[in-house]
Design goal:
Elements: H1 3-7, H2 13-73
């Protein structure tokens, strides 16, 4: 192989370089999608925590309300 072939990519480097850059872009896009999905999951977890807290509050108020009503009746 001559020096000119090495400088113009006669060894296949330019084609391989394009493949590597394409794969890097694909991985970058995939990583961005995972980041968006992770954000959505975090939001959903936050919403579930709020709902669980509200249900816990309501569950805790039932015995208190029952105790208050029973004291008022006596």
């Amino acid at each position: 192989m001559t020096n000119k072939e090495n400088m113009t990519g006669g060894n296949g480097w330019q084609e391989y370089q394009r493949l590597v850059l394409y794969e890097l872009k694909a991985h970058t896009d995939t990583l961005a999608d995972f980041g968006k999905e992770l954000t959505n999951v975090k939001v959903e977890i936050g919403m579930l925590k709020v709902k669980a807290g509200l249900w816990g509050l309501l569950g805790g108020l039932v015995p208190v309300a029952f105790a208050v009503v029973s004291k008022m009746v006596q």
